[in-house]
Amino acid sequence: MSAYVIVNIEKIKDQDKLKEYGQKVAAHTEKFGGKLLAASPEPTVLEGSLNSIRTLILEFPDLESLNGWYEAGEYQPLKEIRLAAIDATLAVVDGAT
């Protein structure tokens, strides 16, 4: 069953670091079977509130692949770049059965 990471970017702190992260994380994501499904610079909120200036959805084949992607040793330096580049919330959602 697919698994998803929903990224809500609340603030961009360093555009250059964000660009660097984007360039480097793509290959890492593909290695774990992940792909970018959606990206919206200004998500439309139908109900409630969302403190996000950009939302992305990544799909992985399963939760094991997603966790492997996030916990991999080679991702940790990329995570540091991301943390320096943006303030964001990352949430994991299991696919529907």
Structural write-up:
38% of the residues lie in helices and 33% in strands. It has three helices and four strands, in the order βαββααβ. The protein has helices at residues 15-31, 63-71, 75-85; strands spanning 3-12, 35-40, 54-60, 86-94. It has a four-stranded antiparallel beta sheet.
What is the rounded distance between the termini? 7 Å
Low-pLDDT stretches: none
Shape: flat
The rounded Rg comes to: 13 Å
Q: How many distinct domains? A: 1
CATH topology annotation:
Alpha-Beta Plaits
Fraction of helical residues? 25-40%
The CATH architecture classification is: 2-Layer Sandwich
- CATH class reads Alpha Beta
- Tally of contiguous helical segments: 3
Tell me the fraction of residues in β-strands, as a range.
Answer: 25-35%
- Indicate the structural class: alpha+beta
- Going across the biggest sheet, name each strand in turn: 2-3-1-4
Number of strands: 4
**Main beta sheet strand tally, sense and closure:** 4 strands, antiparallel
Tell me, rounded to a whole number, the average pLDDT.
95
Order of helices and strands: EHEEHHE
